[in-house]
Amino acid sequence: MKRFVSWVLILALSVSVVGCSSISSVTSSQGPEKIVFWHGLGGSLGEGLNTIIDAFNEEQDDYFVEPVVIGSYLEIDERLQAAFAANNAPALVAGGSHEMFYSKGLVAYFEDYMPSDYDIEDIVGGFKEAAYRNGKMAFAPAYGTSQVLYYNKAVLGEVGKTRENLASWQKIADLRNHVIGIETGQGTLEYVWEPMWGQDNIADMASSNGGRFLSEDGSMVTINSPEWVEVLEQVRVWLHDDQIMRIHSGGQGWEYWYKTMDDWVYGKALGYTGSPGDYVIALEAVQNAVEEGVKNDFAVVHQPGWKENQPRPYFSSLMYYIPNSRNVTDSQRKGAAAFINFATNTENTANFAMASGYAAVRNSVLELETYKAYLKSNPDADAALKQIDLYAVPAFIDPTGGAIISALSEAVDRVQIENVSAQKALDDAQAIAQRALEQAGNK
Q1: Mean pLDDT over each residue of the chain, to the nearest integer
Q2: What is the pTM for the complete model shown?
C-alpha cells in the first residue's frame, strides 16, 4: 500500500466538509448509536478523515462515529482477525485486507445497508468494478491511486510534438532523437523517460500487452509469459543498451522517488511515471524550478499503451467495509453506511482529491463548480480519475500473501539494475512464485 502513504503524508491536508442527507432516524433515549471505526490513516490523511468524522457527528444526532487509529494495515488485519474470534469487531473498517476478510465471509455487503441516495452509478468505473462481488457492492471506495505520466510540455512543444506522442511506450521511445540534448536551462535533457523503481510500472506495461499474473484457472503463475518477457526485455534495452531511460533505486526511504521526480522537475528527463499523490508537491516544485530558469511546463496524462494496445494500468483503492460479525447490529451497519455516504459524497470526495492529489471516487466531481475552478489553476489534476474510469483495472490480489509480487520485484531489479536478461530473471521468478502458489493452495 505504499502508494497511499508516500508523498501525501507531507501535505497539509485541509478538507472542507459538506452536509449529509437521508440518514434514517435511529436515535433512542440512550443517545446516538455508536459506530466504532477502525482505520490506518495517519498524518495529514488522518487529520482530513477526522475532519470529516467530526462534521458527520455534528451534522446529525442518530449516529456517533468513534475512530480508532491503528498503526498499519498489517496490524489492522491482525487485530481484526482477533476481534472476529472474540466477537468484538468494529462496525466499520478502512484499510487492511478487505478481500481476505470477504473471502472468509466476514464482510457484510455494503449495498444491503447503504442509504437510498447513495448513487452507485456515479462511482468512477474502475472503483465500481473493484467494489463488486457476486453482482453486489460489497465494499465502498474511499479514494484511489493509479500511476500517471508527468511530463514537460514545454520541451514537447518545442520539438513540435503533443501528448499524442505519449500514446504508447514505443512512441515515447521514438522521441529520443527529438528531445535528448535539448537545453533546459540548467543543462541538457538526458533521458526520454524515467519509470519509477519497482515492479509496478512494469506490471502496468505488461498488462497493456496482455500479460497476467495467473492463468485463467488460477493454477499457474504466468509472469514469464511472452507478454511479460517482451515488455521487461524492451525496458532492459531502453535502460542499458540505448540508455534513453533511467531509474533511481535504493537509498533511504523515499529517496529514489524524490530523485526520479527531481530529474523531471529540473529538465534532465522529459517525464516520469509517478503517483497522483505527487501532484501537489510536483506542481509547486516545477513552478519553483521555472522561477530558477528551468524550461518546464507542468503536465500530466494517463499511462500509454504497449504498441497499439489500449492502456491497462492497475489501480489501488482504499475501501470502506462493514464487518460481518454477530456483535455488530443492523442499526450499526446502517450507521456505518450512512457515514460512508457522507464521507464520499460529491463535495467531500472532491475536496479530498483537491487537497491530496488522489483520485476522487465520483464522476460528478467533474461537474462541481469548485472542482472546475480548481482544474483551471491545476492542469490535468483529474488525470488519475479519468485513467481509473476509462482504462485502469483493479490491482492484482496475490493469493500467496505477497510471494508472487516479491518474486516479480526481485526479477525486475535484476533486469533494471543488474542488466540480466528478462527471460532468465522471469523464469527464475516464476519458479519461486509457482512453488509459493502451490504451497498456499495446500494450506
Answers
A1: 91
A2: 0.83
